[in-house]
Write a structure and sequence with these properties.
alpha/beta; Rossmann fold; two-stranded antiparallel sheet
Length: 152
């Protein structure tokens, strides 16, 4: 039923919760898991009530890519030990758009992710990523709801 399953990860323990669910589905359907990390530009917004430009600060993409690849490789190794076929990918851009584009280009059949990722402001942004993907993906999306104080 699902040959390729995408698991977007943002290096947070909360987002990693999706791995156990995706692994169970992959085992049941003999699917390939694709672990995806998106390197995004840093955007600085003006303070509320202050009129000013939105600034995009470039990050050291090469360093971020190496770090993300290392992070994904660690998780891929654990999944391979369970006998699951795994591939890792790192792309650059805005997370929701890049995830939806990747799904279309690579014939992904299911997305498994948590409702939230990183903590603080990043958590709010990641939550909107999940909402955006849910609205725009043309394939099934399994959202794992994370409750405060709980990571499973």
């Amino acid at each position: 039923m699902y040959n390729k399953i995408l698991v977007p990860l943002d290096e947070s323990e909360i987002a990693e919760t999706a791995l156990q669910h995706a692994a169970a589905i992959a085992e049941a359907f003999k699917s390939e898991l694709v672990l995806l990390s998106v390197i995004e530009p840093v955007t600085i917004l003006p303070e509320p009530g202050v009129v000013g430009p939105v600034l995009t600060v470039s990050v050291d993409v090469e360093t971020e890519m190496k770090h993300a690849k290392s992070y994904l490789s660690k998780h891929a190794s654990k999944l391979r030990e369970q006998g699951i076929k795994v591939r890792t990918e790192v792309v650059e851009g805005m997370p929701a758009g890049q995830i939806c584009q990747y799904v279309q280009e690579k014939n992904i059949e299911l997305i498994v992710m948590t409702t939230h990722g990183r903590s603080g402001l990043s958590r709010l942004v990641y939550g909107s990523v999940a909402e955006n993907i849910l609205r725009n993906a043309k394939i099934p999306v399994l959202l794992i709801r994370i409750h405060r104080g709980s990571q499973s």
